[in-house]
Amino acid sequence: MEFHRDSRSGLAPYLQIVEQVKEASRLGLITPGDQLPTVREVVTQLAVNPNTVLKAYRMLEYEGLVEGRPGRGTFVVGTLGGLPPDTYLRMSRKLLPWLREAKAAGLDDESILALVNNNLREQAQARVA
After folding, report:
1. What pTM, to 2 d.p., does this model score?
2. Which residue, of 20, 53, 71, 102, has the greatest Cβ tally within 10 A?
3. Bridge partners, 76 (sequence order)
4. pLDDT for 62-79, tens place per residue?
5. CB–CB of 34/45 below 8 Å?
6. Contact, 58 vs 21, CB < 8 A?
């Protein structure tokens, strides 16, 4: 797993790490037994303080998603209902053309996310009504 840091997100770096691990779990990209990058690897990759990574890993451990094993690393022990790999690939293939079209229409990442989130909310409201 490779982390990325977005200084424009307004989200603290440790929360970005937490959210990326959760997203990977939801998408089935990480599963129980997988090892997360070491604190040292994440520090080097993101140029953050080791305590930032430790805080993120502790939060994930508290939530039951990972477990720290002294001298061995941090391992995934829980799941957030990840997709089967073939479903993820199929859905991703369908989504990519739409994303290209959205970018070509001039939408930036934030606008795309706003559009998706708005549609998800509308769909949820329609199910309730």
Report:
1. 0.73
2. 53
3. 66
4. 999 999 999 999 999 998
5. no
6. no
Domains in the chain: boundaries: 13-76, 85-128
CA-wise closest residue to 16 among 106, 47, 112, 80: 47
Mean pLDDT over residues 8-18, rounded?
A: 93
* Tokens 């770096």 found at: 13
CB atoms within 10 A of CB 19: 13
Residue with tokens 């930032």: 52
58: nearest Cα among 3, 10, 16, 18: 18
Contacts of 33 (CB under 8 A, 6+ apart): 75, 76
| Helices (runs of H) and strands (runs of E) counted in the chain | 5, 2
Torsion of CA 8, 101, 27, 68, to 10 degrees: -20
Tell whether the model's pLDDT for residue 82 goes beyond 70. no
29 φ/ψ sector (left φ>0, alpha ψ -120 to 50, else beta): alpha
Confidence category of residue 81, pLDDT binned at 50, 70, 90: confident
Lookup: tokens for 25: 């779990």
